Amino acid sequence: MKLIPGLIVLWAIFPTCQAANGEPSLQEKFKKFIENPGSVITPYGRPRTVAKGAKPEIIIKGEQIFIAGKPVKIGDRLEVWKSAIPSNPRCDNNPPTILCAWDALGIEIFTKTNIDTTVISAYFYINLEPREPLLVTKWPDGTPAVDTKDLRPKNPFRGYFEIDGYGIDAKTEFWEILAKANPERNLHCGVLDCGFPLGALNDRDTIRFRLNKPSKKGNIFEISIGGPIETDAAKVVNGKARK
């Protein structure tokens, strides 16, 4: 076992004797945490277990993404993603990007442009976020306000989604993922709240989450993967959000 240098002092000062009730000593608990942080019961309880079996399977393992057993990555061409994701998508080729949505699977991907089909971001809708209604009837210049078309998938993802060996479903709360994910991903909440936590897929791409409330106990609306800027930029068309 390799201890983190800054934690060696803590390791040394924890008592080694077993508790009177037979529980492991603090040092044993600390050793277990260092070896496998996800094995320790968190203040919220023990993370749920999601059974395998639902299709398609989306597996994030190390720096790789597998869809139905096929490896894909941000930077692959659109055709590579289409060949990995079962069924045919509904695609919108309006500039500046191509958006393809798999309505039955809750998957959405964006390309760099409508000419360059390099995939720059992928969204997996674990739950569909209710769309906020348009609150104005006219824009300041007097133009009638028309809501933009909702191009998101029509249904949420109901396959099997896994990050670092931990299964995720519509009931999963972010603290469970935080407890089970590889610590090297550095999954973390924002400075002010936990509505949009994120972490690393690799040294280039980011895993982002959108929660249904700004708390570690929030359920997952969507999981997205992309570069540090492209993930959000891809969803804007002519200055307005695409969805």
Structure in words:
It is a single chain. The protein has 243 residues and is of the alpha+beta class. The chain has one domain. Helices cover 14% and strands 24% of the residues. The longest helix has 10 residues. The N terminus and C terminus are likely disordered.
Short description:
The chain is an alpha+beta fold. The chain has helices at about 10-15, 25-35, 80-85, 175-180, 230-235; strands at about 55-60, 65, 70, 90, 100, 105-110, 120-125, 160-165, 165-170, 200, 205-210, 220-225, 235, 240.
SSE class: alpha+beta
Strand order of the largest sheet: 4-5-6-7-12-11-10
Q: Provide the number of structural domains.
A: 1
Fraction of residues in H or I helices: 10-25%
The count of DSSP E runs of length 2 or more, i.e. the number of strands, is 14
SSE pattern: HHEEEHEEEEEEHEEEHEE
